[in-house]
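Field guide to reading this record: the first block holds the primary sequence, the second block holds the structure written as discrete tokens, and the final block holds curator observations. Each block starts with its own label. This record concerns Protein SIEVE ELEMENT OCCLUSION B, catalogued under organism Glycine soja.

BLOCK 1 — SEQUENCE
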Amino acid sequence: MAWVLSNTATSATTPEHKDQLPNPFELQDSQIRHKVYLTHVNDDKEFDRDILFTLVSNTVNSTSAQLSAATTSVTSLKPDFPTLKRLSCQMITTRGTPECAHQTALRILQQLSGFSWDAKALIAVAGFSLEYGEFWRLDRVQAADQFGNSLKQLNQVQISRRVPADMIDLVTVLGEVLSYINLWAKWSAMDYDTEAVHSLQAAMQEIPLVVYWTIASTVASIGNLVGISEHKLSAYKERLEFIFKKLQFHLENCRVEIGRIQDYHIRFNIRYPKIKDVVELLDILIIPGSDNGTSIPKIFEGGVLIKNGIEVFKQKYVMLFFSSLDSIGDEILLLNSINNGLQENPGEEIKGFKKGDFKILWIPIVDDWKSKREQFTNLKEKIKFYLVEYFEELPGYDIIMDKFKYEGLPIVSVVNPQGQIMNENALQIIFEWGIDAFPFRRSDVYDLNKKWKWFWNLLEQTDDNAKRLGKDNTSYAFIYGGNDSSWVQNFKIAIGKIEKHVINNVDINIEPYQLGESNPDNVPSFWIGLDGKKKNKGCKDKVDCEIQEVVRTLLCLKQDPSGWVVLSRGRNLKILGHAEPMYQTVLDFEKWKNKVLEKETFDVAFKEYYDVVKEKYASLPYDHTSSVLATITCPNPLCGRVMEVTSINYRCCHGSANSCNL
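BLOCK 2 — STRUCTURE
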């Protein structure tokens, strides 16, 4: 029988025709992929995927314990037995050369052109399994089974036919390959977005090659099994494994990407709507699932590890700082300053909120941590508030994009203890108003704008040049004036020396503005307008009271014989000060400039030094010798003579009702 088949196979292909056939081991992958893809017309033919996969898997795994535990009862099967048997016979009658195995593999692919890619591989291996499975069934016939032993001997099992080790190794690989092709087919059928599961598309590039080498390997194996060929099966196994590893790589990436989609679905659609507190929100955003295989993120504060992790934020308002690692130096300085402000007098209650209940947490957003760890470490050393250390992609990244509207630029989202977002992005108002924006809701900006809008409107109505001031929230404006031209000139020179100053690579942008410099008539217009803001009646509300306090302070400063100064950050007035202590603070800039980094912002460092200077000026004695109308006699009864007046000490009434209340 084998001899007849051998001769038939020999007559099927002449030596001249053989020389024209390509050797698949000498072809490039791209050449094989092209030839294979030409055979694929459509994939609408039906087949019993699950049943056939189970049956074939049990057959090719017959030498191992990897058999399906499920019992399968089949009354009909697509494709039917004649189809599978024809494929099996076609493989058997193939000559024992790589060229002929290549030709048969392409012919089988042509015959299966209407099936899906996974069906092509599965059906071909099913055809091989008819012979392979029959061999192992007969091999296991018990000695007492006379009928079985007769068939076994007719098939010459273990007489002249054996399954060599290289065939068992190749069939084992075929079983693994079928499992992954089947997995690919299931995932492909789920219509995942290729942007979310892009590795599925990459896997598709390898599928035609994997299917081809699967079929070619079955053709070579069945010829060796029947005994009409002596293919070098190790070569087929090597080539199949090479392509299979590529497919494995892409599908393992698919597994991660699909797992991420499923994890996101659970976090976004199931867990997020049921959030009870801010700790649960943080768990959703940064804590990976137990089956993720990655470590739990660490929480640090000022470089110190927080042992209880995200539990430290329980019943707290959390300012979530989302950003990349690039160009965030200004944001870090600003938030360090806010952190200092929150820690100063933490029990202070403003608008029903205590400063001590607010915490800042940096959650860095990084696509690839491989080259970013050193940069993160450098930033970590500068940060005084809380931060997350986690060198993996955040499990809640998509939620941060969807719910917090993070798009790559730094944002600060304020979340209440119940895990609800109070403000999607408070960074702009923090830059503009600093700690004065507490508790950093959008509604708080309205009060702040109302508090200072009148001042800027008045200044701009007085002088169009003032419109340029305060447009940049990170710049500082010194607005000054006075009756003493010498002091005004000295202050102008002193300010000019610190403009555009750089302190340890931190730019300090200063905008000086002298009221009335371009037009002296602007000076009385400003003060008349300011006087018109003064009210004798009670305040309408808290903001109106604050405005009236500022108006009284400015009118008081007007009385300083030398001059006055207003320091603003952006359009937020920070300091209203007297001429001499403000001038002296500017003059002593070199003495306190390093405090700018320590205090995180220029205005905080400036005010700290100004307050010290102001106290010194307040306590200076003013000696003045002159004649005095009233006379005082010596209180000593033994003397009784009129006392001589040599000097009089004057002290300003700071703190009294007539003071400027600075």
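BLOCK 3 — OBSERVATIONS
Residues 585 and 591 are 9 Å apart (CA to CA).
The chain has three domains: 29-261, 278-437, 443-618.
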